[in-house]
Design goal:
The chain is α/β, with parallel strands linked by helices and about 375 residues long. Helices cover about 45% and strands about 15% of the residues. The protein has 13 helices and eleven strands. Strands 4, 5, 6, 7, 10 and 11 form a six-stranded mixed β-sheet that branches. A three-stranded antiparallel β-sheet has the order 1-3-2, with helices on one face. Helix 2 packs across helix 4. The radius of gyration is 24 Å and the shape is globular. The relative contact order is 0.10.
C-alpha cells in the first residue's frame, strides 16, 4: 500500500487526521517507512491510504464525468452530489440520520430532478426508483396525510403510502461502499418544496432529524438509508432582476455578456444571495439547519440548449430506429436546431420551451407523414 498526499483545508483537520493516521499506525496500516505522518508546507498530510484512493477518488471522478455528460452546464451541482455520495461511501454519514438531505435550488427546467434520475441510472436503477412527492400536494395543512397517511376512521386510511416501508423496499437501489459492501438506498424527492405547508415540514423534520417516522397505520418508516432531495425555484424573480441589472451595467459587446451569471463572480454571488435569502424567508429555520447542503443551479444559455437539443434529437432518433414496424432514420442539422432555439425558446424557461418546439417542428411533422403513409420502406 503506497503513500499519498491528501490536501486538508486547516491545521485543525490536519492535526486530527495526523492522530487518526497514528491510530492506524498501531494497526499496521501506515507505511512502515513513514511511521509518523507529517504536515507539509502546502498543508498536506503525508499519510498512508487509510481508504484506498483507487476506490474512492477514482469512482468519484467517474461519477462526475458520467453525470456531466447527462446534465449539461451544472458542474457545481454534479460536484456537490458526488461529494455527498463519497461521504456516504466512506462511512462519514451519521448512521442515525438520513444519508443526505440536499436542497437543489435555481431556475425551472435546468436539470434538478434529472440529476438524480441520471444518478439512479448510473447506479443501475431507473427513473421509477425515484420516489417523488409533489409540493403542490402538500400545500394545505392536511398535506401531512400524504406523508404519514390518513388517520383511523378517515377517508384514505390504510391506502398505500409513497413513504411506506413496502413502497420504499420496492424502490431501493444498491450503492457500493468503499469497502466493497453494498448499501440499499432510497431516493426521495420533494418537488417544489417551497409550496409545502409549514405543518408538513414540522412532520418531515422528524424524518430528517431522527431517520424514522411513525405512520398513521402504526408502522415506523426508516429513512436512515435515504437520500432526501428538495427542489425549489424560489428566489428566481430576484435572481433575474440581478441579471437584468448587471446586463444594463455591462460595458462591451452585449453578445459577450454571460446572462447565466456563472462566469461573472459578482453576479454569481448576487444570484446565490438572492436564492439564500428567499429560502430563509420561506422555509422553516429548523429545516434549513438540517440540510446537508444547498446546491445552486443556474440558467442555461443558447450553447447549453444546443447541446441539450442534440440529446433530445438523439432520443427521437433512437425511438424511430427501434420501431418494430418500420425503422426510420432522422437527421436534424445544427443550423435547424439553432433556429428552433432562437425562435422557440425563452431564457427564463430553461429546457421547457425547447421540448415544446422540438415536438412541434420535428415530432409532429414525422407523425403526420407516418399517419399519411408518406414514409415507406426503401
Amino acid at each position: 500500500m503506497g503513500i499519498s498526499k491528501q490536501p486538508y483545508p486547516s491545521a485543525f483537520i490536519a492535526i486530527f487526521v495526523t492522530l487518526l493516521c497514528a491510530t492506524a499506525n498501531a494497526q499496521k496500516i501506515v507505511n512502515p517507512i513513514t511511521p509518523s505522518p507529517s504536515l507539509t508546507d502546502s498543508g498536506s498530510i503525508i499519510c498512508n491510504d487509510i481508504l484506498d484512493p483507487s476506490i474512492v477518488n477514482l469512482n468519484k471522478k467517474a461519477l462526475m464525468d458520467a453525470l456531466n455528460l447527462e446534465i449539461i452546464a451544472q458542474e457545481d451541482a454534479v460536484s456537490a452530489l458526488a461529494a455527498a455520495v463519497q461521504r456516504v461511501r466512506i462511512g462519514l454519514n451519521n448512521p442515525k440520520k438520513p444519508l443526505s438531505v440536499l436542497a437543489l435550488v435555481g431556475p425551472t427546467r435546468t436539470g434538478k430532478t434529472e440529476l438524480f434520475k441520471a444518478f439512479l441510472k448510473y447506479l443501475g436503477g431507473t427513473a421509477e426508483d425515484l420516489i417523488v412527492i409533489p409540493g403542490n400536494e402538500l400545500m394545505e395543512k392536511g398535506g401531512t396525510s400524504k406523508i404519514v397517511g390518513a388517520a383511523p376512521g378517515h377517508v384514505g386510511y390504510g391506502d398505500p403510502l409513497d413513504l411506506g416501508n413496502k413502497n420504499m423496499e420496492s424502490k431501493r437501489v444498491k450503492l457500493e461502499r468503499a469497502d466493497g459492501t453494498f448499501l440499499d438506498a432510497n431516493f426521495v424527492l420533494i418537488d417544489e418544496g417551497e409550496k409545502a405547508h409549514g405543518d408538513v415540514w414540522l412532520l418531515l423534520m422528524r424524518a430528517l432529524d431522527e431517520g424514522k417516522l411513525k405512520l398513521s397505520n402504526g408502522e415506523v418508516a426508516d429513512f436512515r438509508n435515504t437520500f432526501f432531495i428538495i427542489t425549489s425555484n424560489i428566489g428566481q424573480e430576484e435572481a433575474l432582476a440581478e441579471i437584468e441589472f448587471a446586463r444594463s451595467q455591462y460595458i462591451g459587446d452585449p453578445k459577450n455578456f454571460d446572462q447565466t451569471g456563472r462566469t461573472i463572480p459578482e453576479l454569481k454571488e448576487k444570484i446565490q444571495t438572492a436564492t439564500q435569502q428567499a429560502m430563509i424567508e420561506k422555509f422553516p429555520r429548523e429545516v434549513l439547519t438540517r440540510l446537508s447542503g444547498t446546491i445552486q443551479y443556474y440558467h442555461l444559455n443558447e450553447d447549453h440548449l444546443l447541446q441539450i437539443s442534440q440529446k433530445m434529437i438523439a432520443e427521437i432518433q433512437n425511438r424511430l430506429l427501434n420501431r418494430t414496424v418500420l425503422a426510420v432514420g432522422l437527421t436534424v442539422t445544427e443550423a435547424a436546431r439553432k433556429q428552433m432555439i432562437a425562435t422557440g425558446t425563452k431564457f427564463e424557461n430553461g429546457t421547457g420551451d425547447l421540448q415544446k418546439v422540438i415536438s412541434k417542428e420535428v415530432e409532429d411533422p414525422i407523425a403526420d407523414m407516418m399517419a399519411a403513409n408518406h414514409i415507406n420502406a426503401g
